[in-house]
Amino acid sequence: MQQQEIHKFLLNYFMANECPIVTNHPGYLDVQLTIEMDKELMNRPFYWHYLEKTGGIPNPMRLTLITNQKAAPENLRGETIHFGSPRLHQVFESTKNLARYIRLYENHGNSAVQTPLLPWLCMNVKISYQCDRKRDIFKSIGLQLINGKMVEDFHNYLLKISLTPKIPDYSFTLSPLVKPKSGMIRIENYLKSVIENDDHTWADEAKIRWEKDLELLNHFYEDIEDENESYETEKQALKDQYEPRIHISFINGGLFYLTEKAI
Amino acid sequence: MNVEIEFDSSWQDDFLHKIDHDGPWGNWELFKLAIDIENHLVVPEFEGLQAPKHLPNLTPLPHQLETAKQVVENMNGKAILADEVGLGKTIEAGLILKEYMIRGLVKKVLILVPASLVTQWAQELNSKFYIPAVTQRKSYVWEQCDVVVSSIDTAKRNPHREIIYKQDYDLIIIDEAHKLKNNKTKNYEFVQNLKKKFCLLLTATPIQNRIEEIFNLVSLLKPGHLGNETVFYEKYKRDSRSLNDDQHLKELVNKVMIRNRRADTGIEWTKRHVETIPIEFTKSERDLYDSILELKNEGDWVQTSSFSVMTLQREACSSREAVFYTLKNMLLKKENPTQAYQEQINFLIKKVETVEQNSKAVKALELIQKINDKVIIFTEYRATQLYLQWYLKQHGISSVPFRGGFKRGKKDWMRELFQKHAQVLIATEAGGEGINLQFCNHIINFDLPWNPMRLEQRIGRIHRLGQEKDVMIYNFAIKNTVEEHILKLLYEKIDLFEKVIGELDDILTKLEFGNIEDHIMDIFGDSCSEGEMRIKMENLSSMIEFAQNMKKGESHAAAGNS
């Protein structure tokens, strides 16, 4: 993430959370937090607890986030934000938490005829291949809940469609034939089959490394009969280190009601 | 494929609940942002380093990046980092740690370092690497914090020990790991029983010396890598130096150890210039020194060990204050002192009182005024330190004291004062470790330590990465004293001062005759005559020279080997 991207991201984040932007300067952002966002980000539960008990006037904080030190005024006080900074990662986490599930309708603009909207289940996940090393794959899957059609890269399709949280006029939704719950299972199975067809030399190689080290370990403890405790510990450590694992974690997902031609 | 797939389904019920109750639903803008973030955080390849792009304010040197890459890609995260002093092992360790944290392979981390470096480690990890490392102060820290820095001496003791063994650490980092070369020690046993998934051992002292030490250290990191004990010692004699002859063993060790040498890194180092400044005692100073020297021949004193005499002698070369302080202590601490003993000491105290000026201090003042820039003065004695501070103040020169015993905060404060306000920093020996003062390039060795390593550490405070100017070292030695002997016979002979950083520890570990200080003590304390002393000293310096030459030959042979 480049500094401009970070700046843009922060701006979007605070605007989406309805925080007034006091200053939007190329070098920094000055944001007035709302009460909700103060509670979300500033980590001062005692203050809010005290305020609620005493009924005082809430005074949410103002945040100055410097995204480009060179462009920002010299004596500006604020937090310098970059890709590794804890504040940015806190905002990342918060973003993911605040928008885990969603439901949207296509804003089709047909005002003359009644337009049917088809339900889609979307799941965005991260697949991680892990041994003593790791790599991730991002997947966005869409499943149409009427005919069971499955689409990869679903998120990119959605980005091209105008969406709205309220059902547009002259629209009606079709009830899903596939229940969301079984939809989820279908997607899960699909993901598993994709993974199974992938190349897994990485896992085989990790197992070879594991076995090699295990052999060494066994050899080391050959002559030592007591003291088996540290042997067991070491053995477990090797397992934790090398054992290949695949993990599918959920990022976010939702229901989308789209016109027939949308996808 | 026979890898199990874990599918995180904890969210499903949550999602279904929202569908049933029609919300509340998230915001589309945030939903899109969350995916943007994921796309940025995804680690697309097994290979390569992610950490540098998360650390915009840190510019690692090429050899540091290469080391981190090696450890992650080819050593499976278990390595001995044995760079020569001053090449930034901490940075390498930080990079590796950060890399594993970004990849989500490491969460819980234990960092064991010498007590004096605990705070510094935690600070560096926080400020340079944005890793929320916490120093262990309360016992709940072990359980509640993910990245903990502690001294090994604290960690190995109960109740800490038990709590630590219960934690499931992903990565363990041990600084100054050469202290774990003996497998009979408590520290060794403690570390051996730790679960080490990923593990980094940091050491500046090369362990290519005794085969036993290598075996112990490597076995700690990766048991069995060098075979088991019986087989190993059947093949290699316990005390042999055959590591360097045995190509096979060398290769094995290189699989788990990375040692960058200064010469290979291509970093330009500034030079060291050394000037020895001989100083004459005044008559009264000489009188005091000689009176102390005479004690050696008196019966009562021999029993109180030659140590005291030797100490007094060295102190007399530093300041009368230092001598006085020791004398006073000798009076107070001695149980049932004899009449003669008391008289003897009071006699010396009288001598101390007659000394009216400190010749070294006069010279130091002159030098500082001439340099007209920041200067660090090192002395072995606190009394001298206090005196110098007072003396310089009398002449309008601002100075700050520095001692090893200062708390971290005070150390940093003093360093800051020195950098911004004072011209001179006066440090005692213990203050030499764990502080970097590369903004200054003049050192005055007001008196000389007997351990060359300590001298190297003094110089290392300013001659390190980041020093832009040549380093000037001024050694004060009083003519015709023990001090001059040390300087002439030991330091100058082995060219100590001109050495590149880190070369000395290489050399000293080659010599297997134990603590150099003990030898010197022995030479000066037990020699009956000047002649005997001279011969013994020459012996010692020849041995060091020998080791030096040995090393030279070896580095030719080892050229092209990492």
UniProtKB/TrEMBL annotation, chain A:
Residues 214-241 form a coiled coil. InterPro entries: YqhG (IPR024562). Keywords: Coiled coil. This is YqhG family protein. It comes from Neobacillus rhizophilus. The lineage of its organism: Bacteria, Bacillati, Bacillota, Bacilli, Bacillales.
From TrEMBL, chain B:
The keyword ATP-binding applies. Keywords: ATP-binding, Helicase, Hydrolase, Nucleotide-binding. SMART domains: DEXDc, HELICc. One of its GO terms (molecular function) is ATP binding. It comes from the Bacteria. InterPro entries: DEXDc_RapA, Helicase_ATP-bd, Helicase_C-like, P-loop_NTPase, SNF2-like_sf, SNF2/RAD54-like_C, SNF2_N. Gene3D superfamilies: P-loop containing nucleotide triphosphate hydrolases (3.40.50.300), Tandem AAA-ATPase domain (3.40.50.10810). Residues 70-224 form the Helicase ATP-binding domain. Coiled coil: none annotated. Residues 363-512 form the Helicase C-terminal domain. This is DEAD/DEAH box helicase. It comes from Neobacillus rhizophilus.
